[in-house]
Amino acid sequence: MKRRVSVGSVLIVVAAALYFLVPLYAAFQFSLQMKRGELSLAAYRALFDSDVFLNALTFSLIASAAAIVVGAILVVPTIYWVRLRLPRLRPVIEFISLLPLIIPSVVLVFGQIRMFGSSSILPLTTSDLGTNFLLVAGYVVLSMPYMFRAVDNGLAAIDIATLTEAGESLGASRLRIVGTIIFPNIRGAIISGAFLTLSICLGEFAIASLLNRQAFGPYMVQLGQDRAYEPAALAIMSFALTWVLMALMQAFGTMKPGQRLLPRFRSARNNGEKA
């Protein structure tokens, strides 16, 4: 028996698709009009010819990857331990995880500058390495609500008490249980948190700008003030890059042990021998 699709649901899907795709198409078409009277990829070529663009994008990708790794290392063991041994503290931990949504990022970065400025005991802002560390720490704090929710939902879906008892009965330490049992079982949840962390950190402006880092967010703002067509090309490229990275993360996150990302193609020689 065929299931009938209502007209209302189809209209909602079409309206949502138009709301999403029409501005994207308009930005893409505008990015092709850099040369008067013809459509070209001149705006995209101008971006790739710029060393500032490549350096800013590379820097933001590395900082975002560091924030994802540090956030997962901090959040997963914390939620695991709270769920296993300290369930009464779970409302407190949830409230702390929501603070980055309440406190503006400007307040966060000014607090970092005041705490780790040149007159403090630990003057991290006086060196590039220290300032980069503060940037990654700020990204970890900004992404904490999203990483926390994703990991918490993943841990709620598995029986961590039984898994822990099984690991302890085989002589595994707590650190090994978290690393070899808990992390693989919530890999999909961690990937979901990584998606959100990447999308937040890649275009972040306030923290990177006030820490004077040449990141992708400040570069996009500066380019929008100086140029006309390159910002539209940059928006399309950042959108495509985000989706490609998300697809790769999803592909790696759902891979089974020993599974190849791409199917193995047999060589022509082997096919000839079999024939």
From TrEMBL:
GO cellular component, one term: plasma membrane
Gene3D superfamilies: MetI-like (1.10.3720.10)
Keywords: Cell inner membrane, Cell membrane, Membrane, Transmembrane, Transmembrane helix, Transport
The keyword Isomerase appears for this protein: no
InterPro entries: MetI-like, MetI-like_sf
Residue ranges crossing the lipid bilayer per the database entry: 7-32, 52-80, 92-117, 129-148, 189-211, 231-252
Keyword Transport in record: yes
Subcellular localization, as worded in the UniProt entry: Cell inner membrane; Cell membrane
Pfam families assigned to the protein according to its UniProt record, in alphabetical order: BPD_transp_1 (PF00528)
Residue span, ABC transmembrane type-1 domain: 53-249
GO biological process, one term: transmembrane transport
Bilayer topology term: Multi-pass membrane protein
Sequence similarity: Belongs to the binding-protein-dependent transport system permease family.
Protein name from the UniProt record: ABC transporter permease subunit
Native source species: Neotabrizicola shimadae
